Amino acid sequence: MLDAGRHPKIRILAYSEVEGLKGRDGNFEIKIRRKARYVKEDVCNACGMCVTKCPGRALDAFDMGLRKRTAIYLYFSQGIPAVMTIDPEHCIYFTKGRCRTCEKVCDKGAIDFEMKARVETYPVNAVILATGLDILDPSHLTHYGYGKLKNVITGLQYERLINATGPTGGHLERPSDGKLAKKVAYVQCVGSRDLNNCAYCSSVCCMYSIKDAMLAREHDPESDSYIFHTDLRNVGKWFQKYEKRAREEYGVNFIRGRVAQIEEDEECNPIVWYEDTRLQEVKALKVEMVVLATAATPAKGARGLARLLGVRTDPYGFIQTKPDEPADTSRPGIFACGFCKGPCDIPEAVSQASAAAERVAAFISQTAGV
Amino acid sequence: MKNSKRSSGDSTAPRIGVFVCNCGINIAGFVDTKEVAEYAKTLPNVVFVRENLYSCSEAGIRDIKQAIIENKLERVVVAACTPRTHEPTFRAACEEAGVNPYYFEFVNIREHCSWVHKDSRDDATEKAKDLIRMGVARAAYLEPMEPIIGDVTKKALVIGGGVSGMTAALELGSRGFDVVLVEKDKALGGLLRALDEIYPWGNKASTYLKQLVESTKTNTHIEVLTSTEVTDVTGYVGNYDVKLSTLEEPIRVGVIIVATGAVPLVPEGAYGYDARSKISMYELEVMLKQGKSPGKRVVMIGCAGVRSNERLYCSRICCMTAIKNALLLRKRYKAQVTVLYRDLMCYGTRNEEILAEAKKAGVRFINFSDEEPPLVEKEAVKVKGAILGREISLPYDKVVLTSALSPAPTNESLSRMLKVPLDEYGFFLEAHVKLRPLDFATDGIFVCGTSRWPATITECLEQSIGAASRASTFLATGSAKVEPIVSVIDPEKCRGCGLCVAVCPYGGIELVETDQGIKARTIEVACKGCGTCGATCYRGAITMRHYTNEQLVAQIKAAFAKV
What we know:
heterodimer, A: 370 residues, alpha/beta, FAD/NAD(P)-binding domain, 5-stranded parallel β-sheet, 3-stranded antiparallel β-sheet, globular, B: 563 residues, Rossmann fold, 30 strands, disordered N terminus
């Protein structure tokens, strides 16, 4: 990230959105809306003084809503560019008309409440789409109890819990009572491979759930993990070896069966109901926390962006590419890589990114002078 | 090649700055970084110490640069995480603040300290102090260096004329770079020649192949050499001299792309394979292409010979190949097809759609468990349906073993010639399995397609277009920049015995005639600074730049110094 941030040929326009694209044959004009941060990017040095004094509070999106942040905030500590942003929906000044504490404590004078969003136009030769993914909010899948049962969380929330910089400092403290979760169930295909939600396979959940289970064991050798799965799709380099290690060295329990229902007891311990398809028996397992491997979807807004740019999407909203031209979208000069064109893991995304860069280079060399 | 500047290290009293990183709580959670920072202030030559929450963040870097300028620092020590990921970042920060990047010393107090001593904060803190004391001692003896810049021959060699090799060659050719494409077989095409229909493209492999071969042959920048094998490779990034079996003279290329593909595994010994009534999926593919029906009752068995202790990998594409051919058999011959599987690897969007299509078309799927594999008898396959919970008997005309792709047998000799590694199965091993999938650790050599790992045709295309991009970074600039951390040979001490040449894994040393007789000489662009030559030289004639004896001795002395 820092390499990209420091590269002399790369200009990063963060907190910005594409508003339109004009032109053809490698002569495009792209309109970009630079949203108002209310903080001057070239002045703020992210010292954090404002954060210590800001009285506004909002759920921290980076920490998957597991803790609160201030209304003036740094999205995450290693983010690029390292500057603060004011969230006008939760800022006391913007909502109630007085406060401006951040302005008073900022000795750099970086705060600018008068800042307006502005639209800028850039001439470009080509465009690469790399808008990534979002995860399906599993609240409407009521049988899993997400949103109702406190100790049922998503895979991304788990990532924040187990992360040393996360809200619990890397301790697997479960949301209901802060107790360390020692017995955790990981539920696969939550919304994926589901005709009523995402009919496709999200491709990365099997592996990340195994990783999550192994991490839990590394944090606490006494802990127990249960992965509820159907097909275990570990097809990448060394993935089978990884799965074997999880089984043999980390004692991760694999149970073949889709979870039907999650309930809880009076101590908020989730009870997972499932059919063990190996034994053809319906069973229940009491655990201390459940992690849902929720379906990965195209990023929110990706469909709108595709429409704006005039590129085709598939029925799920992923950017469509042809099997024999995997980096090219339906519109010449616009290329795509990564999860925005369909589920993929990191090495695939990196390969695709190189491919998209190559296609841009080839496109520019062919259209140069047009 | 530009010779790098060298000046002797001025160890009299350099002004050293030390930055202690908290890495959030990755370090600060287990090491008393405040105490460590206070301690660093007491070390010789240290004139400035700062603690950062994240030294690598933009704010952290800005802070370091500012401190260098304001305090006229001459050496910079960062005590943080690993040089593997962050050394380039901090070196660049030094350079941008006017300090030679090789005046930077990295001390790892995360992997080497906080992460491995989580249970003992006091000991971890003491160890961090020791490591920093050592780093500071070495920093005083660091020498400034300039990167080595070598010329690059603007020509690429692509090894392998299958779909990956041709695509990589075409990409480079279309951008005007000259390419030599070698194929050991008589014709281009690789495995694609044996295939019938390709999914999800919905067209014939032969149609696509014809187009691809035509474009490759007619591209004026691509020289195609069939029936040709690579027999020897010498040289280094920018200038590889490659001997080919069909050419007298070696050719010189700047970069090499490995696209040698894989071979279908012959499932000898699995489920009574006999190449007659029990055939491999590859053999079925060939039959389909020839328009031959395998019969009305076909049973396919998954994972034949793979995902076992012998070959502990999933070949990624076999499930989809089976489903595709099952559909073809239904459509063309109205055959009754049963697919026996352990896990169905239909990852992503389109694969899942094809699976649904196959189910709708009446292909039967029966899951079996690893412990109870199917039993192939004379008339029927007996399988315990793991979800049904009972045994089923499936009479057959043909049993098709869905066997895997297996590494090409030539990988081994090629890996030796190119000095690039293979993984434990025999596939080529990239520089980083997650982050650098198309590079080798050796500069100027790249990998794509099934020589790296089994992949679908679309995935092969992504990788080969990507590898072309990686290779073009050298071709486009015409120069290669490498680390100046290389071996230095003292001609006074060298006797020209050639031991160092023999042990160098990168072909980075050569023997040359000089006025003083035969002497070893470092090829700086090829040298990786591994130090093997230095350890081998019984004359003590070879030292490593950036790891000089005085630097290391200072570090060792500091390790045992009672402070």
